[in-house]
Amino acid sequence: MAGNPKTLSQLFSQKKLVVAPGIFDMISLKVADRLGFDCLYMTGYGTVASYLGLPDAGLATYTDMVNRVAAFCGATSTPIICDGDTGYGGLLNVEHTVAGYLRAGAAGIQLEDQEFPKKCGHTKGRRVIPAQDMVNKIKVATDTRGANKDFLIVARTDARTTHGLDEALKRAEHYLKAGADVLFVESPESVDELAIIGRTFDVPLVANIVEGGRTPQPTARELQEMGFALAIHPGLGFLAMGYALQHAYSHLKESGDSLQYEEIADFQDFSKLIGFQKVWDFDEKYRSLETK
C-alpha cells in the first residue's frame, strides 16, 4: 500500500501528468500498488471480464461492480477512480451508485452519457443519451457526494464516435457547468483532436490510452503539454496477462511440462506479494501456542 497518499485533487494540482494503470482483479491491484503508482483506475472492461467472464456491454450490475470497488479499495490506500458506467439506471440509481461507491472507498467515480446497456468506449455501436439527461445525472452525483469534495465526479462523453468532436466538446462543457470535477472525452481519433480537447478546457482532463484502440498514443510528456492531467491505461494489464497466459499455457499443452518455461515470476516473491509473509510471521510468533 502507498503511504500517506495524496488525494486526486492534490495530485492534479501539481500540474504533472498522473499515469494510472488499469486494475481488474486483486493480483493486478497488488502488482500496481507495489510499484508505487500515485493513482489506480478500476477498468470496467477488465473487471467485468475477470469477475464475470463477460464483455463490457452493460451485463454487469451495480451489485457486481460495487463488490469489486469495495474489494479493491479495501486492499490499498492508493486512490482509485472507479468505473460507474451509466450509473446503472435513472437518477435514483445514480444516487444509489454514487453513495455505494463512496462507502466502498472509491476516490472518484466515472459516469458516462451512453444509453443503457452501455458498451466499451473503444468498440462499435455506442449511442448516447440527451445531454440534459446526463447533466441531471451529474447534478444528482454532486448532491450525493455532498461536502466530500475529495470524492471526484469524472464525467465521460461518448459522443465523439457517432456525433463528432464538436458535439463531444459541447457536452463536456455542459457537464462541467453541472458540477463535474474531471472531464473525459472518450475516443478522440487523432493527435490533433487530443490537442483540441486540451486547449478547450482548463480543468483536469482524462486521456484514455487503449493499446490497439481508437485513440493514438502520444508520449506522457506530450499528453502533459497538451493539458491532460490523467492518462489511464485500462487495457495494458489484462492484455499483457492474456498474452502471457496464452504463451505459458500453450507451452504446457505442447510440451506436457513447464521445465523449460522461464517467463514467470519467482514463486517466493509472488507469495510475499499476495501476503504470505504476514502468515509466516504470524506462525513463527505463535508457534509456541500450538497444541503439542
TrEMBL record:
<dbReference type="InterPro" id="IPR039556">
    <property type="entry name" value="ICL/PEPM"/>
</dbReference>
<protein>
    <submittedName>
        <fullName>Carboxyvinyl-carboxyphosphonate phosphorylmutase</fullName>
    </submittedName>
</protein>
<dbReference type="InterPro" id="IPR040442">
    <property type="entry name" value="Pyrv_kinase-like_dom_sf"/>
</dbReference>
<dbReference type="Pfam" id="PF13714">
    <property type="entry name" value="PEP_mutase"/>
</dbReference>
<dbReference type="GO" id="GO:0016833">
    <property type="term" value="F:oxo-acid-lyase activity"/>
</dbReference>
<dbReference type="InterPro" id="IPR015813">
    <property type="entry name" value="Pyrv/PenolPyrv_kinase-like_dom"/>
</dbReference>
